[in-house]
């Protein structure tokens, strides 16, 4: 269980670019099969990220807003996006839909 969950990648795992990562959608689940009945709601949570392209590219865009997150590296040369919950949650499955532009070929989930 954790109050913060993030999906991260390194620049050399970005297919089209080493400076940006675009994510269409992220969903967290409390079961290992990512079934819709066990989707963790993110309505009253705070989206967090390594950095982004500014207005219109914020991390909340990848959590059910039908847009995309335009991510940039942090000071440690990592790209990441996640969610901060008020109470600890147990995430057992994550569904990530990369954008067609600058998708990541390898991801890691961190609590």
Shape: globular
Termini Cα gap: 8 Å
Described by strand count, sense and barrel closure, the largest sheet is:
4 strands, antiparallel
| Uncertain regions spanning at least 5 consecutive residues | none
- The residue-averaged pLDDT reads 89
**Given the structure, what is the number of helices?**
0
Number of strands: 7
- Radius of gyration equals 13 Å
Approximately what portion of the residues adopt beta-strand conformation? 35-45%
Description:
It is a single chain. This protein has strands spanning 2-10, 20-29, 46-49, 69-72, 78-89, 93-98, 108-110. By secondary structure, the chain is mainly β.
How is the topology of this model organized?
Blueprint: E1 2-10, E2 20-29, E3 46-49, E4 69-72, E5 78-89, E6 93-98, E7 108-110
Antiparallel strand pairs: 1-5, 1-7, 2-4, 2-6, 3-5
Key traits:
single chain, 111 residues, four-stranded antiparallel β-sheet, three-stranded antiparallel β-sheet
Summarize the structure.
Helices cover 0% and strands 43% of the residues.
């Amino acid at each position: 269980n954790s109050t913060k969950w993030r999906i991260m990648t390194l620049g050399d795992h970005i297919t089209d670019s080493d400076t940006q990562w675009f994510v269409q959608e992220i969903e967290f689940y409390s079961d290992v099969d990512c079934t819709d009945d066990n989707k963790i709601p993110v309505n009253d949570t705070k989206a967090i990220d390594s950095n982004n392209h500014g207005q219109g590219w914020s991390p909340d865009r990848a959590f059910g807003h039908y847009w995309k997150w335009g991510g940039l590296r942090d000071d440690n040369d990592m790209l990441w996006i996640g969610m901060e919950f008020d109470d600890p949650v147990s995430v057992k499955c994550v569904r990530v839909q990369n954008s067609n532009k600058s998708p990541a070929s390898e991801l890691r989930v961190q609590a």
